[in-house]
TrEMBL record:
Keyword Aminoacyl-tRNA synthetase: no
Compartments where located: Cell membrane
Reactions accelerated catalytically: Preferential cleavage: (Ac)2-L-Lys-D-Ala-|-D-Ala. Also transpeptidation of peptidyl-alanyl moieties that are N-acyl substituents of D-alanine; [GlcNAc-(1->4)-Mur2Ac(oyl-L-Ala-gamma-D-Glu-L-Lys-D-Ala-D-Ala)](n)-di-trans,octa-cis-undecaprenyl diphosphate + beta-D-GlcNAc-(1->4)-Mur2Ac(oyl-L-Ala-gamma-D-Glu-L-Lys-D-Ala-D-Ala)-di-trans,octa-cis-undecaprenyl diphosphate = [GlcNAc-(1->4)-Mur2Ac(oyl-L-Ala-gamma-D-Glu-L-Lys-D-Ala-D-Ala)](n+1)-di-trans,octa-cis-undecaprenyl diphosphate + di-trans,octa-cis-undecaprenyl diphosphate + H(+)
Species in which this protein is naturally found: Peribacillus deserti
Protein's recorded name: Penicillin-binding protein 1A
Keywords, alphabetical: Carboxypeptidase, Cell membrane, Cell shape, Cell wall biogenesis/degradation, Glycosyltransferase, Hydrolase, Membrane, Multifunctional enzyme, Peptidoglycan synthesis, Protease, Transferase, Transmembrane, Transmembrane helix
Regions that span the bilayer: 7-28
């Protein structure tokens, strides 16, 4: 009786198949006439292309890839001609033998699936064509329900009418999931064998081709034997279909498959984290978001900010290449120097190196052992600059506003105004000193007198060019002359500002040179122009003051032979921060040393780690 029921069940199902086909046809006609469904399709698919999320990359100045960015899916797209013919044959043979004959729907495949599901009492068998699987990956989910299946059939029909078989197969091989975060054959090839798809052997192609059928079950890292067995089944099918000779079958099957895992590239995380932040700024500047955000009301600002975030993600999902100025040699030496000079667990550091002729950021260290997307001290930390602000806020403006001589005398005696009575380091008292002496030995009271003479607002006007983000109106006071700010400055900001002592011009240093699409077309580049800050005489005098400081002043431990060298130290109250920012003939570099929660590191002052770090970084890169 059971056999009779089964027979009639199968017969009924077979008779219903033509009815199902007719139903699908009329359903499609109704669906295609629905404007909302048509509009939805048109938003998802354009005539030109379907955009799969791709992996973007960040490169150093020598074009070495330092970071792979996958915001949605780790995928490296291959065009149809880049996909080996043997690999195409495998997928068509094992997934959809009538691929080149049907229009996206294989009724015989659906029949087999219905029969299998009826026998099993479930909907476990899919019977999907390659086009249906592509539709599922692009537009739908992987639930095994008949509602989803109907949508899948309709989308498949649309895909077949919009794209050629070559295009559909290309999309499919790039879209499918190969486990462990790899989407598409190229990402899989790089992940499991550390080589491009073009370099795979036929045995390796068949091995990888088995994974998408059930990525969790056929995970090469955890179920190698299962993947190998599936590979052998695939090869047997190919042999049965006369796509492999008996000898080829034996040789390919016998080839030893050796995994050579390649971890995704994520080098120099502090620099690349900054690059991502700068990329968002570049997009905002290039596409008008920055101006709109500055003038928008709170509600619109939130909406615009989200729109900008979406735009950045869209670009990072398009497989762009962000070309940067990173000098990996300098970055390596900077990180190493910091770790050697600061063995203490709780003392941190940040370093910034700018090639001041090109205004390029060639190195950026965000911390001693920086972890990706953690607090980046080089551009996210704002600290009191101490005397390191004097060249920018006191001496530069004083020399720039009138005809002064470096041998001009000024009192280094006690200074007191409106109850504010700061002292020189160590409470030392001096008489009249030259501007050169006051600068190189970092006396406080002469700086306050010069600041007063120039005028607070006039002096601060020079800082406007440098766009210090945390500068507030409360900072416009006498304590600022010796580094007393409400919030302070970041190492990147301060180093950027010092680069103006190269030739008198200021232009923010940028890590990004260009952003290109995966075909090499330039999409974005900075178009900023330098702003004049100091006149030529001021630059000449300031460079001399900076040189004297390193020669025999507070920065002498940073001295090294160079065509030009100069710099300025900065120490805040109770030795909570140690700064040194200096220039060589080619670079402007800044180093900050301190604790994340500010507290005294006076016990380190005699070692002068900030000076030694700077000297080590610049030592092998100065002329």
């Amino acid at each position: 009786m059971k056999k009779v029921r089964t027979f009639f069940g199968y017969t009924t199902i077979v008779l219903l198949i033509p009815l199902l086909a007719v139903l699908l046809f009329f359903t499609y006609k109704e669906w295609s006439q629905a404007e909302t469904a048509q509009a939805e399709w048109n938003t998802k698919v354009t005539q030109k292309e379907i955009k799969l999320p791709l992996t973007s990359t960040i490169t150093a100045d020598d074009e070495m890839i330092i970071t792979e960015l996958s915001k949605s899916q780790n995928r490296i797209y291959l065009d149809e001609q880049e996909i080996p013919e043997f690999l195409k044959q495998i997928f068509v043979t094992i997934e959809d033998q009538h691929f080149y004959e049907h229009k996206g729907i294989d009724l015989s495949g659906i029949s087999r699936a219905i029969l299998t599901n009826a026998k099993a009492g479930s909907s476990s068998q899919g019977g999907s064509t390659i086009t249906q699987q592509l539709a599922r990956n692009l537009f739908l989910n992987h639930e095994k329900t008949y509602n989803r299946k109907l949508s899948e059939l309709l989308y498949s029909y649309k895909l077949e009418n919009r794209f050629s078989k070559k295009q559909i197969l290309e999309l499919y091989i790039n879209a499918i999931y190969f486990q462990n975060g790899a989407y598409g054959i190229e990402a899989a090839s790089m992940l499991y064998f550390n080589k491009h798809t073009a370099g795979l052997s036929k045995a390796e192609m068949a091995f990888l081709a088995g994974i998408p059928n059930n990525p969790a079950m056929y995970n090469p890292f955890t179920h190698y034997a299962s993947v190998k067995k599936r590979q052998e089944r695939i090869l047997q099918i190919l042999a049965d279909q006369k796509l492999l000779s008996a000898e080829e079958f034996r040789n390919i099957k016998a080839e030893l498959i050796v995994l050579n895992p390649r971890h995704r590239v994520d080098l120099y995380p502090d620099y690349s984290a900054f690059v991502e932040a700068e990329f968002k700024e570049l997009v905002a500047s290039s596409e008008g978001y920055m101006t709109k955000l500055q003038t928008a009301n709170p509600d619109n600002k939130e909406r615009l900010a989200q729109k900008l975030n979406d735009r950045v993600r869209e670009l990072l999902d398009s497989g762009i290449v962000i070309h940067t100025a990173l000098d990996t040699d300098i970055q390596d030496s900077a990180g190493k120097s910091i770790r050697i000079s600061l063995p203490e667990r709780d003392i941190e550091s940040a370093a910034v190196v700018i090639e001041h002729h090109t205004h390029e950021l060639v190195s950026l260290i965000g911390g001693k052992y920086y972890k990706k997307y953690s607090f980046n001290r080089s551009f996210q930390s704002y600290r009191q600059p101490g005397s390191a602000i004097k060249p920018l806020l006191v001496y530069g403006p004083y020399l720039d506003t009138a005809d002064h001589s470096l041998s001009e005398k000024i009192s280094a005696g006690p200074f007191c105004q409106n109850g504010y009575c700061p002292q020189n380091y160590g409470n030392a008292l001096y008489g009249l000193v030259t501007i050169e002496e006051a600068f190189s030995h970092s006396y406080n009271t002469p700086a306050l007198r010069l600041f007063n003479d120039t005028g607070i607002h006039k002096s601060f006007s020079y800082l406007q060019a440098f766009q210090f983000k945390k500068l507030v109106k409360e900072d416009y006071s006498l304590p600022a002359a010796i580094g007393g700010f409400t919030y302070g400055v970041s190492p990147l900001e301060l180093t950027n500002a010092y680069s103006s002592f190269n030739n008198g011009n200021y232009q923010p240093a940028r890590a990004i040179r260009t952003v290109t699409d995966r075909k090499g077309k330039i999409l974005y580049k900075w178009k900023e122009k330098p702003v004049k800050v100091w006149n030529a005489d001021t630059v000449k005098e300031m460079r001399l003051l900076l040189y004297k400081t390193v020669l025999d002043g507070t920065g002498k431990k940073a001295f090294l032979p160079s065509t030009y060298i100069g710099g300025k130290t900065g120490t805040t109250n109770n030795y909570k921060d140690l700064w040194f920012v200096g220039l060589t003939d080619k670079y402007t570099a800044g180093v900050w040393v301190g604790k994340d929660i500010p507290s005294s590191i006076e016990y380190k002052k005699d070692q002068a780690p900030h000076l030694l770090i700077w000297k080590n970084i610049m030592g092998s890169h100065s002329h």
